[in-house]
Amino acid sequence: MASQAQAGEETGERSTHEFYRVSPHLPRRFDEPHLLHAYGSKPTHPVYRTSNQAYGRRAPTVHEMPTVFRGRSQDFSTHLGQCGMYRNRGLNTAVDRSSVAAAAGGGSLAVSARHQRIAFHEAVRALAAGTAAAGTGNGR
Fold it and tell me: Left (φ > 0), alpha (ψ -120 to 50) or beta: where does 84 sit?
């Protein structure tokens, strides 16, 4: 009976430091889990409920909260704020595609680029064939 009464008291607005030795730098949100109001959303149909939804549905107790907080320093972000973000000054060699022509189902811009590509390859083939024909005419 005493354990049931104690369990009932633990589910109330109890703090983590009342049960465990906590770090002096522990943020309040970890020391007092009853302040977290992100739990208890609208219920989902049991057929479509995932295991993450079932686990994350209930609010954490003081026994599940961390007792130590080791926050990271903000040195990297502070340095970027002072110096500015990295800027890529490389040459953009990508072919720009027209979103208007793509939406129109291959409009004149896309067709002309296609024809230019075909004409270029035909010219290269003709040049290669002409060089081969000229090479045979030299008597080699």
Answer: left
